Amino acid sequence: MQVKINKRSAYAPIRYEATRPYAVAFSKTYMNQARQGEQARRAFVQSLPPRLEAAISKFGVANGPGPLQSEIVNIQVFGAYHEAGRVIFDIAPGLTSSLALTDADAIPCGELPLPGAAFYIHFGTSSGLFADGYEVEGAFVHHAEEKLMVDLVPRAWGSQHFFALPMGEPVVGVSVDMSDPAKTITDALTDSIRSIMEANASMFAQIAEVEAKLTAQYGEVIKVPTPVERLDDKEPLLKKALGLIVNVLFFLAAEPGDIVDAWGRDTPREPLDALSSTVMPGRVKSIENSLLKAGYRKVRFVGRTFADSVASRAIHEAIDTGRTLATHFRRGHFKRQPYGPERSLRKTIFVAPVVVNAGKGDDQSGRIYDVR
């Protein structure tokens, strides 16, 4: 059975791996060096530009320094994801809509449940995360040494023509300091962005000076690509995205029964039908190996059961129709609830959002998820 390489996968990390022959090799080397300490990690990152430049030149002439600079970061992000097992969580659109209406501002850093060291969350086109033409398709999440690295992936990231784009394919990333378990995640994000901006202030000043000189020389506005993002401009987007990601993580911990491992949504129909119609172990292994070799993966589908619930459908309908007067949302939230002997213990529960007065004036009851 012939299965074509999956360069147009629905999932950004699969597209990235399929369109960058160097991705796995460079990422493995990077992670090996990172395990040896910060000095070894930095040394490898400094050695990456000429290696990447040679690899990218095989595709064509890069359109300026942007593609190379973006790939230096992308290799590090992809490396953590690859080493952790290439785990993809595919979030049902109905669940995404509900979690976007759930408050996460008061969640302490010390209570964040993490399903692994690194993974990718796929929202598709239903994330509702937009900013200045930047539409978020998903996010890489990596936790290490009291840091939570979040890298937002724009729509269509992982193109095979990345080298022709002036800025390449950058992600919007931030490293959140989680060392204070009592600090809320939102405050931790704000403080981290402030610290990063202060650390990069001198570099931004130098870039502004160079841009001013070039503009004066050529008589038109000249912008110089920078190796780091101005996070203060992206802070509203990052806050909204982090809130959604936090709510996804709580849902994963609270509803393991609503997580199903299956071949991704863009897997060809023919091999899937062949898998469902055979009971021969050798045949099954052969088909699955063909899919894996072509770049397809099993992913973890999250929230399909919830998305089919009355509450979820009511929220989705209210959003689609724009009925915001008679119908309104009661936002979901997390709260600390006493339990145990003499109610002396505390647990975090997730109260899902509900639609009030959904067409018939009835309250579409939400569900409560226990997160221990």
Could you please describe the fold and organization of this structure?
- By secondary structure, the protein is α+β, with helices and mostly antiparallel strands.
- The protein folds into two domains: 12-308, no CATH class; 319-372, no CATH class.
- It is built from twelve helices and 13 strands.
- The protein has helices at residues 12-19, 23-35, 38-57, 66-83, 93-100, 185-199, 201-218, 231-254, 269-277, 281-293, 304-307, 310-321, and strands spanning 88-91, 118-122, 130-131, 134-144, 147-154, 172-177, 259-263, 298-302, 328-330, 333-339, 345-351, 354-356, 368-371.
- The strands form three sheets. Strands 1, 2, 3, 4, 5, 6, 7 and 8 form an eight-stranded mixed beta sheet that branches. The chain has a three-stranded antiparallel beta sheet with strand order 10-11-13. Strands 9-12 form a two-stranded antiparallel sheet.
- A hairpin with a 5-residue loop joins strand 10 (333-339) and strand 11 (345-351).
- The longest helix is centred in the middle third of the chain and has 24 residues, at 231-254.
- The model is unreliable at 360-372 (pLDDT under 50).
